Amino acid sequence: MSDEEHHFESKADAGASKTYPQQAGAIRKNGYIVIKGRPCKVVEVSISKTGKHGHAKCHFVAIDIFNAKKLEDIVPSSHNCDVPHVNRTDYQLIDISEDGFVSLLTDNGNTKDDLRLPTDESLLTQIKDGFAEGKDLVVTVMSAMGEEQICALKDIGPKS
Amino acid sequence: MEGGAPAGEQRDRETLGAVRSVVFKPSISLEEKRFPRVAGYDFNRGLDLLGLLDSMSSTGFQASNLGDAIEVVNQMIDWRLSHETPAEDCSEEERNPAYRESVGCKIFLGFTSNLVSSGIREIIRFLVQHQMVEVLVTTAGGIEEDLIKCLAPTYKGDFSLPGAYLRSKGLNRIGNLLVPNDNYCKFEDWIMPILDQMLLEQTTENTVWTPSKVIARLGKEINVESSYLYWAYKNGVSVYCPALTDGSLGDMLYCHSVRNPGLLVDIVQDIRAMNGEAIHVGPRKTGVIILGGGLPKHHICNANMFRNGADYAVYINTAQEFDGSDSGAQPDEAISWGKIKGSAKTIKISQFRNEKVVNKLQQWVWATDLKWL
Question: Which family does it belong to (chain B) (predicted)?
Fold first, then answer.
């Protein structure tokens, strides 16, 4: 049973690798791991030594970084796992469109309009309310494996 | 003593007479047919296995039970439908003497997994190879230990090897046998692709897996003549194991289900099949040979209950009945349930040995010299 199966979801990308391999035994709590093609953050690791169940195994419990679903995996500790490259970039919030897309200002002055509002309730309310009040907002966009999502919000405007 | 000598003598004679009539109570003569004479094997006859086994019945204690068990098993093997008078409502085919001569007893063999870890596995393989038994029932270990032995061997160790020490060396102890962790790693590497394939067949070909079908598939895949499961697959001998998950096999199913979920194993279908093995025998008799207790013992007896009991039963185990366990129950208890016929030929061979003295000695030996490992 190889873990090569997780490689089949290759995204059309500009060339940079979305994941890198790491030995399962080296992945720790709060690290990242790809489970069933999803980028996840590890919340629990337990290791069972070699025994009746075969090779020593790492039991991972992780949360999908985009949809917060709990995923589990059991990997022989000597096998390689895929670890996603997770990037965070800050953008200034320019506009929110009626159909739920945001307009963001990139570093080079262009706009980035392909991102939706986040699904997380509290974050969504914060953005909408803050924008409606005319605040200067900067959003942090987390990206991994070809997927992007707003994950945090900062108010950079003057304190009123 | 004082008093008249003749009166004292008279008293002594009476006392002696009374004692004699108690201690030397005349015995009845025993009829030889019901009470055979005790006589052991005479090795002046040379090394004769059959002669030795024949002498078991008259040797006494559990040897006699063994001799009786041999007799019961021989009856299982020898019985033919032609030995019985045809039933009034039986079919034309059933009346045919040649047909009746060809119909024999259906033999169920049950055994616990420790026996497969031991060299008894070779004997089980012989029986299955030559189709001398038709239905096997065992536990998960009884399946995996046979397969694992095809990948790597089990070793003889000692009952008193210290547990923590063995764990640190990656050795698992089964009684006085040792199975290295590495053997289970090899088993994992061997079985995972097979489980993947089985899941694929379930989803694409609508295959419904049951424990007995899984076992048949594993017997097919191992494809080695030293394996009894290989021969079971080859000869169409059904192997039932309702608790398939309770062993390394279960660990493999568990790990597999996390990485590649969805494999279903239907135990309901298998209980239909197992009970059917007893129910649909028609005019045949059934015999049960059960080595060990636990699940294999009960599962076989229970199935035979559906035909109002087995006709022959041989139990060989170390369990005792004082705790009310089914494992320790004598055949007569099964008769009360209808699992064995009241008219059946039955025997239980008990084995029990006080290990305390033996263990103390061995522990002293091990405490002084662990180096040899």
Answer: Belongs to the deoxyhypusine synthase family.
- Token pair of B201, please? 């067949």
The rounded distance, in Å, linking the Cα atoms of B97 and A80 is: 68
**Does residue A76 or residue B368 have the better pLDDT?**
A76
Q: Which residues pair with B346 in a beta bridge?
A: B313
Burial of B264 (0-12, 13-18, 19+ CB in 10 A): exposed
Q: Is A73 helix (H, G, I), strand (E, B) or coil?
A: strand
Look at B357 and B88; give whichever has higher pLDDT: B88
Rounded (10°) CA dihedral B275, B278, B282, B287: 180
Q: Give the pairing type, strands A147-155 and A137-144.
A: antiparallel
Query: Do B189 and B246 form a contact (C-beta atoms < 8 A)?
Result: no
Among B207, B203, B213, B202, CA closest to B244: B213
pTM, two decimal places: 0.83
Are B317 and B290 spatial neighbours (Cβ–Cβ below 8 Å)? Answer: yes
Q: What is the pLDDT of residue A16?
A: 63
Task: Measure Cα distances from A151 to A35, A37, A46, A66, A137 in Å.
Answer: 20, 20, 28, 9, 13
**B339 catalytic residue (yes or no):** yes
Q: How far apart (Å, rounded) are the C-alpha atoms in residues A65 and A88?
A: 12
Res B355 pLDDT > 60: no
Kindly state whether B189 is in contact with chain A, defined as any CB-CB distance less than 8 angstroms.
yes
Which position has the token pair 């919030």?
A93
Query: Are A25 and A47 spatial neighbours (Cβ–Cβ below 8 Å)?
Result: yes
Q: Does the distance separating the beta carbons of B192 and A73 come in below 8 Å?
A: no
- Residue A37 backbone dihedrals phi, psi, to 5 degrees: 80, 0
**What pLDDT, on a 0 to 100 scale, did the predictor assign at position B225?**
98
Nearest CA in chain B to A61: B258
B269 in contact with A at a CB cutoff of 8 Å? no
**Residue B2 amino acid letter:** E
CB count within 10 Å of CB B136 equals 26
Give dist(CA B347, CA B68) in Å, integer.
Answer: 7
Tokens 């208890």 sit on residue: B333
User: Residue A141 forms beta bridges with which residues?
Assistant: A89, A150
How far is the C-alpha of B102 from the C-alpha of B79, rounded, in Å?
10
Contact B348, B320 (CB under 8 A): no
**Rounded to whole angstroms, how far apart are CA atoms B269 and B238?**
13
**Both structure tokens of A91:** 């953008």
Asked if A34 and A81 touch (Cβ cutoff 8 Å), the reply is: yes
| Strands A87-96, A101-105: pairing kind | antiparallel
> Of all helices (H) and strands (E), which one includes residue B303?
helix B294-305
Closest CA to B225 of B142, B131, B122, B140: B122
